[in-house]
Fold Pyruvate dehydrogenase E1 component subunit alpha.
Amino acid sequence: MAAQDKFSPVDVLSEVEEKFEMLQILNEKGEVVNEDLVPDLSDDELVELMTRMVWTRVLDERSTALNRQGRLGFFAPTAGQEASQIASHYALSEGDYVLPGYRDVPQLIWHGLPLTKAFLFSRGHYKGNQFPEGVNALSPQIIIGAQYVQTAGVALGLKKRGKENVAITYTGDGGTSQGDFYEGINFAGAYDVPAIFVIQNNNYAISTPRELQSKAKTLAQKAVAAGIPGIQVDGMDPLAVYVATKDARDRAVKGEGPTLIEALTYRYGPHTMAGDDPTRYRTSDEDSDWEKKDPLVRFRTYLEGKDLWTKEQEEEVIEKAKEEIKAAIKEADATEKQTVTGLMELMYDEMPSNLQEQYEYYKGKESK
Ligand SMILES: Cc1ncc(C[n+]2csc(CCOP(=O)(O)OP(=O)(O)O)c2C)c(N)n1
């Protein structure tokens, strides 16, 4: 064998990169293109998955409107990403932990976080970060990538306690350029912990396109360097996302370690509601190409073909979502305003002497 054949890093790279093909089960038309991989979900479960995605789309629309009315604070739109978010979460079991990024409020809601809490979080109210007992989740992470390191730690804790549970986390394509991303997946691999790392590759980190983010052909292949399995899935296909996450979970609870999942998706709206204008960096053609891949449209078609979904059913879900959102925002409005002293009391059982003076100052101010 010629020395050249043994030394071909360029060939190794292209061979590895070619192996990362996007998994799809349901195509844009709602047709099954991968019969062998259709998950074993009951009719009720399929309907529930659709219900959650429709509900989540309504939450996005209403949150956008409430933000514009000045009734919500921070909000990162989610429309377009429902399959990546909801179908991955749907593969979890009771007791699993969710470590979301700022765009991942829907997974928190479906993990049991009361919607009022999510609205209070949006308003920066500390009560929005106080999760009820049993909601195994952290608050949405604002520091890009930090949740990947934390997830390795939470998953290590689950392993040490002998739990048959996983920790799942989410970041965007931009997040994969952060040091924390690599530290998280590497540590999780080294300690074989039950973690699932999801990359929601929506093509943009605010206005920076995916192509400028990394020379890697796929983001899933970053798993190789950490020695863990990685897979790229059609993030607009709820069945593919579900199957990839379920498989990752099954292996994780068997002690086989973490998985990295890259879901190819798109956010229809702006990065956040704080002034981003996507028309400055995306074309309307690109938007409409992605809208044709819409997860709700293809799943609706699939379910209608099985006689499991009707227009009336969808209307009912939409109306119910609107009612629940209305009630939750009302409850958020009725929550007492946060105060400086309230926050201080929350932090200290006994007020440290160096803060006592400030505490008294604000107590006086607040009583006026
Ligand atoms: C460590 C860090 N650097 C920069 C920022 C500012 N920032 C907020 S969102 C964002 C883009 C993230 O893009 P991506 O990871 O692709 O996620 P997406 O918003 O598309 O879901 C940046 C740079 C931050 N929050 N944290």
Observations:
- The longest helix spans residues 43-68.
- The mean pLDDT is 97.
- Residues 103, 142-144, 171-175, 200, 202, 204-206, 271 surround thiamine diphosphate (CB under 6 Å).
- The domain at 14-335 is CATH 3.40.50.970 (Rossmann fold).
